[in-house]
């Protein structure tokens, strides 16, 4: 994900002490600037790089002492110096639409149903499983996630349920479900653009039985056979200020207010979708990722969404199901864990069948609109159609090997895959892309993310040796590959231990603004701009089941790549914007395949040669 605007610096975001994990320390300045030079050198000519060195030296003398001192003080004062800033900059203050760049989609494995009865059965099963997971998270009964031997902050799990990003002019507000005093017992089901309140827990916090949920869903179906002519939820897919204006107007009506508050307090949303077909040249899996990301446009299911809700389960008609998730409260791995849990429940048929029945009736959540709002609904629907038509997303599984192969070659699979991205990109564009890759900071209290940026000089050397003509001897390429992957892994560990570069630079920039200091020259430099214009935006979200997350590219010329390296296969979701013209998801998938095969071949040949010596 790309850094957002630097407005609204986050001082008003609620700070909560969520764990007894260590506080995020302020990174060391020397290390950050060394990384800056290394990443700059990989992208610059010798002459340009000399200029960058001058800018860095000036920064060290002129700006650094004051800024680092201020950051040190902030790090001492707050449980996490970064997270309040990050919440605002990456999310709440960003005015851009949630789909398709900010809000990821997630796709379950194909389940075995093809009728409306099956659709409701799976909607009930997914809902009940999610409710059980909610109770585990709420009652601190989830096993802590680990990074090696270090436990990770688990707060994000509690933020997933009952949470809504409320649109506000300038900066949105996040309302967490765990902050409500009253128990949350319902979900919201959307069908044909109509919203309904459906009960899923009883007064003793017991999940309702599958048949009790299914009966309510049948009622929803019987009351939503014709499309809602004014499905106002589509405006939640548009620019945040536009939606904030509509939201404020809607809430002035007392009945609307009640309906909207019911949506805000819903544990999650379930979208009962109509059938959809993949566009020509795309697979059913590609189509499901489109449904999960944006709903396929207004003729398909985009009018059947409420994008502010953290969790929306998307239930198709042909065995495909998934989720649209609003990113503000949590990263992908807790969402992946929820999806894995649901898959396990479905595989194990582990449902509450003799649980309580509903004690409240299904109620329709009517939201009345006026002519002006109806026009905005139409406009937002058109905007969504354009976005949906422009996004080229491909679900790609690499089958020749999985993370077992790099592991057997004593190479980090994640670093190996990142090098394959760089090589694939270079072969298409003859240049190296500034690359974003998410690293978790959840070893620290309230931790969110750092960017495992690449390429550095080691990665650039490897890629250039791979493509050089005449060919470089295979032993040299192998050495460069080992060096580049070890370097990437070392930087990954740095990032996860609060010694990454990106958030530190951001901190200096923000703290200068907050303290009315002049913005240091380094932040206006061409290289800083270039480094922050990502052409590959990537994220690993591993799961045990065949679950794939996806998101849109963070810039017009960028590739958005979410990947799930499993033991014997590597799953990728690759997205691009068609309107850019020079990128193509399918072409990237093809080059990625080739890169992965060529890299394996280098290792095989080089290690064979070595064993002969
Ligand atoms: N030799 C042999 N095996 C190795 C190895 C080497 N040199 N280096 C790593 N491995 C093994 C690891 O032990 C691990 O083994 P496992 O499969 O038994 O668990 C496996 O290879 C994978 O390790 P690696 O590929 O290095 O990556 P990782 O699993 O440590 O993940 C990150 C790296 C950066 C993705 C992870 O730390 C992270 O931060 N994840 C969060 C990302 C996130 O938040 N995404 C969502 C954003 S919305």
UniProtKB/TrEMBL annotation:
Keywords, in A-Z order: Acyltransferase, Transferase
Molecular function per GO: carnitine O-acetyltransferase activity
Domain Choline/carnitine acyltransferase: 24-594
Region of interest (Disordered), ranges: 278-299
UniProt-listed Pfam families: Carn_acyltransf
GO cellular component, one term: peroxisome
Xref: SUPFAM superfamilies: CoA-dependent acyltransferases
GO biological process, one term: carnitine metabolic process, CoA-linked
Positions annotated as active site in the UniProt record: 327
InterPro entries: Carn_acyl_trans (IPR000542), CAT-like_dom_sf (IPR023213), Cho/carn_acyl_trans (IPR039551), Cho/carn_acyl_trans_2 (IPR042231)
PANTHER family assigned: CARNITINE O-ACETYL-TRANSFERASE, ISOFORM A-RELATED, CARNITINE O-ACYLTRANSFERASE
Family classification: Belongs to the carnitine/choline acetyltransferase family.
Protein name: Carn_acyltransf domain-containing protein
Native source species: Caenorhabditis japonica
Lineage: Eukaryota, Metazoa, Ecdysozoa, Nematoda, Chromadorea
